[in-house]
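Schema walk-through. Below, the input block comes first and the output block second. Nothing else is stored per chain. Lengths vary across the set, and this one has 521 residues.
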Amino acid sequence: MSDYLLVIIGLAIGVGVGFFIGKSMMKKTLADHEEEGNKKAQEIIRIAQSNAENIKKDKMLEAKEHFLKLKSEFEDDANQKKNTIIQNEQKVRQMQQQVTQQLEQTKRLESELTAKNTKLSEQIELANKKREEAEKMHQQQVSQLEKIANLTAEQAKQQLVDALKQEAEAKASSFIKQSIEEAKLSATKEAKKVVIETIQRTAAEQAIENCVSVFNIESDEIKGKIIGREGRNIRALEAATGVEIIVDDTPEAIVISSFDPVRREVARLSMHRLVQDGRIHPARIEEIVNKTRKDIDNEIIEIGERTVIDLGIHGLHPELIRMVGRMRFRSSYGQNLLQHSREVAKLCATMAAEMGLNVKLAKRAGLLHDIGKVNHEESDLPHAILGMEMAKKYKENPEVCNAIGAHHDEIEMTSLISPIVQVCDAISGSRPGARREMMESYARRLRDLEDLALSFKGVEKCYAIQAGRELRVIVDAENISDDDAGMMSFNISQRIEKEMQYPGQIKVCVIREMRAVNYAK
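--- output ---
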């Protein structure tokens, strides 16, 4: 037991001694480490201070260099501005010197002008005095001349003016007559040649058309079906197509009457389809008419496209192509409008080629010159002006537009294509059998032609002969001289051109004769 306690006590003493020894050793070690850390810290601080000194020195040097650079730039800028100011001061001095010189020169000129004005005023006064003296002398001479001639100055002037006027009119008349004869010698032959060659190279395909269409039927029994019970079928057909259907005693024929060829064609085709179908009643009539009208519209477009292709015209607006197709179902004085326009287009192309002009533009203008006649909308404008506006709307060439608007002289012609279209239109419309003219309008045109000639002073009688293509005017030989007769013929022709519309040309023949009559008793 005692040994055990001793061992325990010994162990406890050993542990305590060891603890104190370890603690003392740890303190010593910590002290050594702290001393070493202080040394390292001092070394780091020393190095940092050294680096900071170096950085400070570098920054100081950079600041000095930047300062010196800014200083040099400022000095250069200041020197440049100084030089500029010096130059400006020199310019100002020069300008001051120039202004001073100009002021001195102006003063000198003012003094010279003052002297000249003084001299000029003296000269004006002297001239006024001389003019007054000259006027007095002139008045004295005029009064002396009036006393000698027994005429006033105004009367003498009037006589002189009248004499000069008569002489000028006589010379002008002879000059005009001579100029016209010279122009005829050189131009008439070539013009006739071009027109004749153009006409000979173009053949017309169709003459006068009527305002009625005849629908042929196999038997008169079909007439009853078309009329219907109490006339309901024929009334429905007339209401749907807008035409007048005449069913009379004519065997195997029904007459369709309308001034609109499109309506007549729609009615004719509709009746043909109804007869073939056999079912004829108002509902079927309306259906067939609507279908036929659509087919006619498509046919109009096809006709327009085929026409422009045949004539070699490209780039035409679709709406203008439709109007060209509608010409097929339109007539003018009995002449089919499409055939007339095709003929005019070919004539224009031929004549333009003979004259060395643009053939394509001439052909285009010839085809479109009457499109104003097929406009859907009603208008108070002449068809030439209406056609010109439509061509402008669809961006046609300005020369083509002018040719359309000027082919009846509604506007002024601005290109050589315009008179070509006018001439070719007259050729196509005035050839024998081309158009039908009513008796009343024909007689009125001849009467207007004679009245126009009778309105001239000195005309005794006037006769329109050869269907209005020649006008013979008989004048008073005592009041009208030979020169006056030539001038009157020219003036009458000019008035006819301006005031009247006529196909072809009109020959104006003024007849002046002197008859001496005596009787032997």
